[in-house]
Amino acid sequence: MVLKSSSFNLVTPSPPLLSPLFSNPPSRINITENIAIEGRNLSFSITTKQGNFVPILRDCSLRIPSGQFWMLLGPNGCGKSTLLKVLAGLLNTTSGAVYVKKPKCFVFQNPDYQVTFIVLTFRLQLVVMPTVEADVAFGLGKLNLSNDEVKSRVLEALSAVGMSSYLQASNIFRSVQTLSGGQKQRVAIAGALAEACKVLLLDELTTFLDENDQMGVIKAVRNSLHNSEDVTALWVTHRLEELEYADGAIYMEDGKVVMHGDVASIQSFIQTKQSDYIKRTYCS
């Protein structure tokens, strides 16, 4: 299938353009720079019921500075979501080392398209709270905050994602159930920000959204980073046009990190592959 701006699926993986960031897999990572996310020589495999060994991630290395918004792209099945789950600590690697600044938050959509997020000690929020304000404040009960501190955090978090008007006012309750898909995702991100998460790991949040909601979620993440230099985000996507909002990008194929760096280089690489595929398909 030809690479498109909304989604893409490349047929033949090409050899890596960049060598791995690290040639010798370490047992642990000592961070000396202002780095929020780092993976060194990460590999992950599964064993099928038939006993077959299937590699999913192959010697992946990446490094993302604090306070930046990065995107992770690649064909369907190349290992993007698996890599994100490894960084979140939801999957254990077969080999390699991982460092992610804490507290971290993993935001995704479950099969019913309800937004779910896991934060801190990986508390799974499956409860749908009655109002936007209650939903964002859900995880703050364990932090021993005063009512004023909770309200302040909720207001700051909702303001960061452009939803401060959804606070309770004049006894009007804004039900979470009445929100669009994109608004629910922004509320989930606000919940993570309220709990002072330093790293947002975001798994294909715009897949089922219309263009308006899609842009709303992306801008909410950008604003969150602008409002706090401490927050870093890694966003898995299939939409090439979303790259324009990123500070950097990672491109994967066949379980490997093929490119890692500035957005312009990633865009140029993908466009070249797109052009080459069209030539092979229609001009041969």
Automatic annotation (TrEMBL):
Domain ABC transporter residue range list: 37-279
InterPro entries: AAA+_ATPase, ABC_transporter-like_ATP-bd, ABC_transporter-like_CS, ABC_transpr_CbiO/EcfA_su, Molybdenum_import_ModC, P-loop_NTPase
Keywords: ATP-binding, Nucleotide-binding, Transport
Top-level lineage group: Eukaryota
Single annotated GO MF: ATP binding
Pfam families given in the database record: ABC_tran
Recorded GO CC terms: chloroplast envelope; membrane
Gene Ontology biological process terms from the UniProt entry: transmembrane transport
Name of this chain's protein: ABC transporter I family member 10
Source taxonomy: Eukaryota, Viridiplantae, Streptophyta, Embryophyta, Tracheophyta
